[in-house]
Amino acid sequence: MRTTRGFTLIELLVVIAIIAILMAVLLPALSTAKKIAASSVCLANQKNLATGWVMYADDNDGLLMCNGALYETATDRTPWVHAPRDPAGNPLGKPPSASITKEDRYRGIQLGTMWPYIKDVGVYHCPGDSRMVTRRPPRDAYRSYSISYAFGPLRDKDLAIRGGYQYYRRMSEVKRAAHLYVFVEEEHNASQYGENEGGWHLPFSGGLNRLANPASWTFYDPLASFHNKSSTFGFADGHSERVRWMDKRTLEFIQHNADDASVHSGFNRTAPGNEDLRWLLEHFIGAERIN
């Protein structure tokens, strides 16, 4: 007679334990791989946006794209992206209602001056930006990137000096394009428009942020870190970079902006001697543009 022998309970438990151990080992590796993949996509997004930005200047006699986002007036068509719009093309209220949709956000992007150059809404969103699933409407922002206030007018008739520095209006003025970032990851959780608004501001006014005086170095506008303690940037020559933040004060500033919905715009947070802030300052605008 033949006998059929199955697994004993002890053997099954051993197999289950081995599988559990393997999963515990593999899951962190898979999570890291996912974050690396998201970072790669984001770097490609930044490069595409920076390239579109350069192409716009080429097509407009060197004039730089308006850095304003959502601040348009009824007759102003210059913003690189517009406020979310309803199906009839009307701007939504401030703040938009909780019924705002992703399509409303897409329509705002598609009205911007960047759209003829980058006709893919996915390029405007970092896959590491989780606000669409973690924030309640209308705080569930879609667009992950903003243009630095160092480049281009905020509006079509903006003045040439803002916040202690003279921003670039034409590409011919930009002498170190590979050194200066244009596009920044921003997590503006408290925007009155339900999206990152305006440009990304790093002020040099009021005695703040003089590189010769590290004691005054100060953060202001929200900065995002969608990639495991790092952020991506798109530069004025069309390339992109990922920068890892090393000072815990940088990460605390980033987290505060992400969590506190009472922070409508930026807020001053001094971080004396912060090397992360030094990098942001050095690559924000040339020293010759500071007044």
Description:
The chain is built from five helices and ten strands. It is α+β, with helices and mostly antiparallel strands and 291 residues long. It has one domain. The strands form four sheets. A four-stranded antiparallel sheet has the order 3-6-8-9. Strands 1-2 form a two-stranded parallel ribbon. Strand 8 and strand 9 form a beta hairpin. The protein starts with 8 loop residues before the first helix and ends in a 9-residue tail after the last helix.
Please write out the topology:
Elements: H1 9-59, E1 66-69, E2 79-81, H2 102-110, H3 131-134, E3 145-147, E4 161-162, E5 165-166, E6 181-185, E7 218-219, E8 230-235, E9 240-244, H4 248-259, E10 269-270, H5 275-282
Parallel strand pairs: 1-2
Antiparallel strand pairs: 3-6, 4-5, 6-8, 7-10, 8-9
Query: How does the helix and strand content classify structurally?
Result: alpha+beta
What's the structural domain tally? 1
Radius of gyration: 23 Å
Oligomer: single chain
Q: Major sheet, described briefly?
A: 4 strands, antiparallel
**Averaged pLDDT, please?**
86
Low-pLDDT parts are: none
